[in-house]
Amino acid sequence: MDKxxxxxxxxxxxxxxxxxxxxxxxxxxxxxIFQTDNYQLARKLLDVxxxxxxxxxxxxxxxxxxxxxxxxxxxxFAVQLKARMAEGDFAQTVGTLQPQLAEDQTARSVRPDGNTxxxxxxxxxxxxxxxxxxxxxxxxxxxxxQLKLAITGTSSx
Length: 157
Fold this sequence. Notes:
The protein has helices at residues 3-11, 21-34, 37-61, 76-87, 90-93, 119-152, and strands spanning 71-73, 101-103. By secondary structure, it is mainly alpha-helical.
């Protein structure tokens, strides 16, 4: 038996019965599908889209709050993401990369109360984010559909 077989069996908490080698073989065949850079990047960008939607919702809710500063994804996330992609082995290191919200330093107040939220800008950002989310969810579900086709031999439900 190989190292993977024993490591997987050791990982099963409290199990004294070894896992079937056929199950381990299938796991080794499926795992690379979910470890591709494209799949992992799409999943991470879906997380970003969800977080950005929360920021947009917060911005719209506080559009009339005096002194409120617009929120968005921290700009260093894009820099970190590009750096990880350039390094290679993105799928292995993507888990440590977490998007965070931050005040939008580029937003300028056009109102005397210091609020930096422009409702028109937020609505445009919301629409753009929805399109990006739809596209990314299609990428992820396409990978899952390919896996289903490989397993069952049919693409129907």
